Amino acid sequence: MTLQDAIESGQYSQQTDEALSEFLDWLVKSDIVARDVHLTTSLWTRRTARSS
Protein backbone atom coordinates (compact mmCIF):
# COMPACT_ATOMS: atom_id res chain seq x y z
CA MET A 1 0.00 0.00 0.00
CA THR A 2 1.32 3.45 -0.80
CA LEU A 3 0.94 6.39 1.54
CA GLN A 4 -1.62 7.83 -0.86
CA ASP A 5 -3.64 4.58 -0.62
CA ALA A 6 -3.49 4.77 3.19
CA ILE A 7 -4.70 8.37 3.18
CA GLU A 8 -7.50 7.73 0.68
CA SER A 9 -8.73 4.63 2.54
CA GLY A 10 -8.74 6.40 5.92
CA GLN A 11 -5.95 4.23 7.35
CA TYR A 12 -3.52 7.13 7.81
CA SER A 13 -3.67 7.98 11.50
CA GLN A 14 -1.90 10.20 14.02
CA GLN A 15 0.32 7.21 14.87
CA THR A 16 1.18 6.78 11.19
CA ASP A 17 1.98 10.47 10.91
CA GLU A 18 4.29 10.32 13.94
CA ALA A 19 6.11 7.26 12.54
CA LEU A 20 6.51 8.93 9.14
CA SER A 21 7.85 12.08 10.78
CA GLU A 22 10.36 10.03 12.78
CA PHE A 23 11.48 8.22 9.62
CA LEU A 24 11.83 11.45 7.62
CA ASP A 25 13.85 13.05 10.43
CA TRP A 26 16.18 10.04 10.33
CA LEU A 27 16.37 10.13 6.52
CA VAL A 28 17.34 13.80 6.45
CA LYS A 29 20.12 13.21 9.01
CA SER A 30 21.46 10.13 7.19
CA ASP A 31 23.88 10.01 4.27
CA ILE A 32 21.17 8.57 2.04
CA VAL A 33 20.22 10.53 -1.07
CA ALA A 34 16.51 9.99 -1.72
CA ARG A 35 14.92 10.84 -5.04
CA ASP A 36 11.36 10.65 -6.25
CA VAL A 37 9.83 10.47 -2.77
CA HIS A 38 6.10 11.06 -3.23
CA LEU A 39 2.85 9.75 -1.78
CA THR A 40 2.49 7.34 -4.69
CA THR A 41 6.06 5.99 -4.49
CA SER A 42 6.37 5.61 -0.70
CA LEU A 43 5.29 2.25 0.67
CA TRP A 44 3.58 1.91 4.03
CA THR A 45 2.97 -1.12 6.18
CA ARG A 46 1.76 -1.61 9.72
CA ARG A 47 3.84 -3.58 12.22
CA THR A 48 1.99 -5.45 14.90
CA ALA A 49 4.91 -5.80 17.30
CA ARG A 50 8.45 -4.54 17.53
CA SER A 51 11.23 -7.02 18.26
CA SER A 52 14.24 -6.04 20.31
General description of the model:
With 52 residues, the chain is mainly α. The chain has one domain. It contains two helices and no strands. It has helices at residues 3-8, 14-29. The mean pLDDT is 83.
> Which class of secondary structure composition applies to the elements?
mainly alpha
Query: How widely separated are the two ends?
Result: 26 Å
- State which percent range the strand residues make up: under 5%
Summarize model confidence as the mean pLDDT: 83
Rg from Cα: 12 Å
SSE pattern: HH
Oligomer: single chain
How many DSSP H or I helices?
2
Shape: globular
Task: Describe the structure concisely for a colleague.
This protein has 52 residues and is mainly α. The protein has 2 helices and no strands. The protein is globular.
